[in-house]
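Entry 12.
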Amino acid sequence: MAAWPLAVRAQHSAMPVIGFMGPAPAATYLPRVEALRAGLRDLGYVEGKNIVIEFRWAERVEQLPEIAAELVRMKVDIIFASSSTSVEPARQATKTIPIVFAVHADPVGVGHVASLARPGGNITGLSMLLTDLVVKELEIFKEAVPQITRIGILWNPSTPSHRSAVQAVEGVGEKLGVQLLLVPAQTVDEFDEAFSTMTRERMGGFLVVASPLSFSQRAPLAELALKHRLPGMFGSRENVEAGGLMSYGADLNDLHRRAALYVDKILKGVKPADLPVEQASKYEFVINLKTANALGLAIPESLLLRADKVIE
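Predicted 3D structure (tokens):
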């Protein structure tokens, strides 16, 4: 920051600065960024005129702690850390700068807030409650492919909220009468081996526990699923638009737009500890019929009628 031109530093000091932490590639997150910007504009904030957003993108999860430390050194007014993966390094970097999240999977379960009603610290925002979502996703997936008896659970051990989500999905697996295989993958380079494992173990399909990795690397995931001829359930619409079979999850763009209200209230002096965590209010069920046909699957008509979007 000391190397910045004086004019730039003067401009930044005159406006509130949001430090935005996100996983690369940045292009995959553009719709979420634009949703946040739209929410800010609705509240009177125009980037470059009365607010500044400093974007920092991490190629690897291991880079997030240094990005968080950099934003703290810059003395930004708010750190915007969308998911639990980014919140954790931000939490470790500061106990005073407000941290706002938009799609946190389990803020209470991982200890980032004391409770949804009373966060109690410098962290707050919106949650998609992943532990509840994965249960619903598995139920829908079993309904879509009723003959399935063995399902791979593709999860990311480096995502803080995934352990509780995996426990939740394991519990419902027994009730549905399906055998689950936990398949970890922390990087895109581990996807190949993960799918080879599921094929070798004769999985009839897979469920991806949503994470920044599965979102940003949605094209490789869809390609591998078709290559191994495995139907998959995902956590976001974008995964299905990239070629995945189906998804059920919160409207992530809506959550980012609503997160702007937290930014506004904090900039006006409200403490994060006094801002209750809100839950997602919009959910989407999306089916890709083109992928279903390629896999030789006949999706039940009842599910097609319930879908919010069917990709022909």
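Annotation: Residues 264 and 270 are 9 Å apart (CA to CA). The chain has two domains: 6-128+251-281, 130-250+284-311.
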